Amino acid sequence: VVPRNVTPKYEGTLSASTYPQYDLTSPNTRCGRGAMSTGNSSEIATVIAGSKVGFRIDFWYAGSLGGVMLHDGPLLAYLSRSPDQTPQGLMDYQAGGDWLKIHERGPDNHTRWFMPENWTQYNFTLPVTTPSGYYLLRPESIYPHSQFTTTQFYMNCAQI
């Protein structure tokens, strides 16, 4: 989702498996499982600092409930600036650089996480102070469990 319109599926996003990540040391936690191999097949979205942006939940598997977030927990958004500030440099970027958290949605109160019914999109504002350039924009959803090794991490990236 970019300013004022919903883009077609995968436009500007790196195609990744929707299965959760558990290993925070894996490169797959950068943009999702297998996403870094799809950079050249994804478009680069033009986004202006200060704009409202977001990510739409897509189908998980055949026969599932479809594009509805099924887990509660924190929602976060990060930016990582491509070291090579060219379109091809962004498409080749493996997301191994620094990440800056630009948005966070925590619990609604002391007893429950934010989780509206039939939630389908995660929207937020790109900071107005963001310098122009080529970035990966990553949304992240964390489904917490009492045992850390079973906490689920969901993420993807868009090239902007």
UniProtKB/TrEMBL annotation:
GO terms for molecular function: metal ion binding; monooxygenase activity. Its cofactor is Cu(2+). The keyword Magnesium does not apply. Gene3D superfamilies: 2.70.50.70. GO terms for biological process: cellulose catabolic process. It is an enzyme of class 1 (oxidoreductase). InterPro entries: AA9, AA9_LPMO. Keywords: Carbohydrate metabolism, Cellulose degradation, Copper, Disulfide bond, Metal-binding, Monooxygenase, Oxidoreductase, Polysaccharide degradation, Secreted, Signal. It holds the Pfam family AA9. Its main location: secreted. One of its GO terms (cellular component) is extracellular region. It is found in: Secreted. Its EC number is 1.14.99.56. Residues 17-160 form the Auxiliary Activity family 9 catalytic domain. It catalyses: [(1->4)-beta-D-glucosyl]n+m + reduced acceptor + O2 = 4-dehydro-beta-D-glucosyl-[(1->4)-beta-D-glucosyl]n-1 + [(1->4)-beta-D-glucosyl]m + acceptor + H2O. Belongs to the polysaccharide monooxygenase AA9 family. This is lytic cellulose monooxygenase (C4-dehydrogenating). The lineage of its organism: Eukaryota, Fungi, Dikarya, Ascomycota, Pezizomycotina.
